[in-house]
Structure prediction request, 287 residues.
Amino acid sequence: MKPTVNIIIALIMLLSVSSCSYLKKKQGEDILAIAYDKYLYRSELEGLVPKGITPADSMEIARQFIDNWIRQEVLLNHAESNLESRRKDFTKQLETYRNSLIIYEYESELIRQKLDTIVSETEIQAFYQANEANFQLPENIIRVSYVKIPNESKTKPSAKKARQLLVSNKPDDQIDLMELCEKSMFTCRMDDKNWIPFSDFIRELSLDIINQEDFLKSRTFFETNDSLFAYLIRITDYKTIENTAPVSLVKDKIRNLILNRRKSELINRMQQQIFEEALKNKEFEIL
Prediction:
């Protein structure tokens, strides 16, 4: 231990006990505090203080730890002194908790060793189709493409061409638009596959939209601007709140649901097999 830490510990020891007589040894360890018949040892502070902080901060962290320990011991002693013996007996609860932990650890190891974690696209699609009603959208979502043009360039021929290409459905025009944006130093986002929350897009562009559903139903292309840029926006698709979410948007959720179902089935099979084996071997009986 570094000298500064030794000094801090020494100071804490002086602050935390009332006299030098308390600085006893038990199995070769220094005692920092005593509460009734409980001892707080210096070793219990190891690793408590993060590296790189000042001695004053180290001192404060250690002091708080000791103070919290003392308070807990005082409250515990008071509670034990004022409760009947039967209300302090947690033998059954501790046994139940221990049993649950042992079973949980065994099941976790079983899952780690034997669970098939590969979920195919076919399984995801089948699960989605069988449970579409459970995948309602919590918010409006869109597929969107847009071009971001500096205000000083929005009246140039390149900006006009960008408008024409953005609203086109021809694949070649999308390629031409990306090349035009690169040449003209425009920011271009062409994405007709991924869904995003409409509210996120509104915040990103600081749009003032009161009724999202009405807005989406009435516009596929619109323009807006701020102090620096003009935005050409094309909404290629949308789905409103409480409609069924696209499978691509809930794929991870479905995969987790399938895995959780497999875990449950694996554990149930294991439990049944163990029970049947114990029954066969007459390892238990009901009297």
